[in-house]
Design a protein that fits this description.
Number of helices: 15
Strand content: 15-25%
Shape: globular
Bound molecules: zinc ion
Largest sheet: 7 strands, mixed
Structural class: alpha+beta
Length: 485
């Protein structure tokens, strides 16, 4: 069933059209501040977990605010596969007759589960304490939802007209659940969200150390996730009469080969930029090694040295690692069954099936089955042929605007393109052929990542600076270009 609420109806119900107001008076600094605060608080206090929450309630609340701020009701839509998994799509109209394709901003509204007893305060109460805002979603990612909604309203009130349409989609089920909003919109309403490129504030951002900015990261490609199950079976028997053929040994031999055989070194347009940027930031042997692996041909000794650090290793290749193991049924019986889970993070450009076949070849054991395990836990003889798109070179217009907005807010901070080794909704827009960039204006200390954890929080100052960043960044991306620029 398709669920659809007209925000015009909502606004009318709330009596909003009865008030007279000036729609395009620019907001003052303090008005911006209190608007951002109120939107953030409202979003945190609407439970959007998969178990009992609703993204529709949050989507409707944001839709009503946007219509109230002057967005035509026809450009603000809440829609989704059922009444609890609504997504908001709002189109900020650019110059009439613009030939430029729109920019799409995606940001998820749902949050990971949080239990009151695990937290110091109620995770669904917006609490300000000691310079931080606490609540589920303060980092991941209702802060960014609030920032973009605030800036849409702020730009509209200032009468700003971008050089093209900017679309914002606030979506369901990024963290889990069966109704991923980005996928649903791509499959059912591609016309509503089709774009030149995507901005996703779910990754990227300023990395700080005790508040001091180190780097502005932009996520420009993502690895693909896959689980494989290795299964060995055996007739078994009494353990007093062992045979050389043993289900546990088959699994152990395979895992030893996996441990000893890393996937080949690879580099793409984004990781090349990453290592080049890091060579300019770091010093000594580390900087030399970064330079040596971007050379042609890359220096194998430098690759080996860098591979000792898991962060660099995961940026240089597909990784597959044993994560679970189960075998045997009695201490005095030969095992009839042994299995292991191998978790892979696949370098863009390779499919799950391609990696499964590489594992089969590596293990070279006909007695061993290597099965693909879907997200739902189902086992299959073949992996899917889905792969993450090999990233095109970074767009100069996006990079220039990012450099400039970063320089304004955090002067002197280098911009570093990264490959995300986890996954976000950008994997779906990238798979749909739309280049996607993780860009966030939020500064967080590198050791204060509390996403999905207890007492999730964001520095108060980071939040408001993030509001100013996206306001500046969106204008720099969509300012009218003069000839020759
Ligand atoms: Zn997230």
């Amino acid at each position: 069933m398709r669920y659809h609420v007209s925000p015009a109806a909502l606004a009318l119900a709330a009596g909003m059209f009865l008030a007279t107001r000036t729609l395009s008076a620019p907001l003052s600094e303090s008005e911006t501040h209190s608007l951002a605060h109120d939107i953030f608080k409202q979003l945190i206090e609407i439970n959007t977990t998969d178990s009992v929450g609703s993204t529709t309630v949050a989507a409707n609340a944001m839709a009503a605010r946007l219509v109230d701020a002057g967005f035509p009701a026809a450009d603000v839509t809440v829609l989704g596969p059922n009444d609890r998994k609504g997504n908001l799509v709002v189109r900020y109209r650019g110059q009439r007759g613009s030939k430029l394709k729109p920019i799409l901003i995606i940001a998820h509204l749902d949050v990971v589960e949080a239990r009151r007893e695990d937290w110091s305060s109620d995770p669904f109460q917006f609490v300000e304490k000691d310079g931080y805002y606490y609540g589920r979603g303060t980092q991941d990612m209702k802060s960014s939802d609030a920032i973009v909604v605030t800036d849409f309203i702020r730009l509209k009130k200032a009468g700003y007209v971008p050089d093209r349409d900017i679309i914002l989609a606030l979506t369901a089920d990024e963290e889990g659940g069966k109704s991923n909003g980005v996928l649903w919109l791509l499959d059912n309403h591609r016309d509503l969200i089709d774009a030149d490129y995507v901005l996703n504030p779910d990754s990227g951002g300023v990395v700080t150390d005790h508040g001091k900015p180190l780097t502005m990261e932009i996520e420009a490609t993502e690895k693909l996730y896959a689980d494989f199950e290795l299964v060995a079976t055996n007739p078994g028997g009494h353990s007093s009469l062992p045979r050389p053929d043993n289900a546990i040994y088959h699994i152990v031999d395979a895992l030893a080969r996996l441990q000893a055989t890393p996937f080949p070194f690879e580099m793409n347009a984004v990781t090349r930029e990453y290592f080049t940027a890091m060579a300019a930031i770091d010093k000594g042997l580390l900087a030399e090694d970064f330079r040596a692996i971007t050379a042609t041909p890359p220096d194998p000794k430098a690759i080996d040295r860098l591979a000792e650090d898991p962060r660099y290793n995961s940026t240089m290749r597909t990784t597959c690692v044993a994560t679970m193991l189960a075998a045997g049924h009695a201490p005095n019986a030969l095992p009839q069954h042994a299995e292991a889970n191998v978790n892979c993070r696949i370098f863009p450009g390779h499919s799950q099936e391609e990696i499964r076949l590489s594992l089969v070849k590596l293990f070279a054991d006909p007695a061993l089955r290597v099965l693909y395990k879907s997200d739902a836990g189902e086992l299959a003889e073949h992996g899917s042929d889905r792969k993450a798109m090999v990233p095109p070179p970074l767009r100069a217009d996006v990079m220039n605007a990012l450099h400039s907005a970063t320089e304004t807010l955090w002067p002197g901070t280098p911009v570093v393109p990264i490959m995300e080794t986890g996954a976000s909704d950008s994997i779906h827009t990238m798979a749909a052929g739309i280049p996607s960039y993780g860009i966030s204006g939020i500064a967080l200390d590198h050791d204060d990542n509390r996403m999905h954890g207890r007492d999730e929080r964001i520095p108060v100052e980071s939040f408001y600076r993030g509001v100013d960043f996206y306001y500046d960044f969106l204008q720099k991306l969509t300012a009218k270009k003069t000839r020759g620029q």
